[in-house]
Amino acid sequence: MTSGPEPRRNEFAPLDGPATPDPYAPLDYPAGPDLPPPVYDAYPPPPGYGPPPPYPMPAAGYQYGGYDPYRATKPPGTNGKAIAALVTSLGGLLFCGLPSIVGLILGIVALRETRSTGQDGFGLALAGTIVGALVAIGSFLYFVMFVGIMASGFSLV
């Protein structure tokens, strides 16, 4: 037989001895309508720290603004429309001039894009535009000459 109640499961027996006060517990200040509010001691500023030094003046003739962090950067790689312009313009040589019209249009669009964004491929776009225009003009002149010869009734026999 035991001398007191037995501890239940997941319960600890009461501690013997006086309870120690918590050193980190907040202090209870007396409160009342006739008492002034408590006064706290202000911490002194840390030693050795002063205000930050002022910014240096820029050199004579130098202006800020060489770097704009909000401006878009140059897109990486070569412009795809410039590559497509050159490929389709050269394809117009093989396929009777029809793809050269597409190459001419893609070349003009790619010229504008590379000029405005600074992306690589300006030379490819220019070459695609020139080759596309020459092949398209040559194909048109060939077609006009063919129709003229057929309309005139010319025969080799």
Descriptive account of the structure:
By secondary structure, the chain is mainly alpha-helical. The protein has a domain at 80-152. 42% of the residues lie in helices and 0% in strands. The chain has 3 helices and no strands. It has helices at 80-94, 98-117, 122-152. The longest helix has 31 residues, at 122-152. It is elongated, with a radius of gyration of 44 Å. Residues 1-51 are annotated as: Disordered.
What are the key terms here?
157 residues; mainly alpha; 3 helices; 42% helix; Membrane protein; transmembrane helix; transmembrane
Break the fold down into its secondary structure elements and pairings.
Layout: H1 80-94, H2 98-117, H3 122-152
Helix pairs in contact: 1-2, 1-3, 2-3
Briefly summarize what is shown.
By secondary structure, this protein is mostly helical. Helix content is 42%, strand content 0%.
Count of helices?
3
Total strands: the figure is 0
Span between termini: 138 Å
Into which percentage range does the β-strand content fall? under 5%
**Oligomer state of the chains in this structure:** single chain
Largest sheet: none
Shape: elongated
Give average pLDDT, whole number.
82
SSE class? mainly alpha
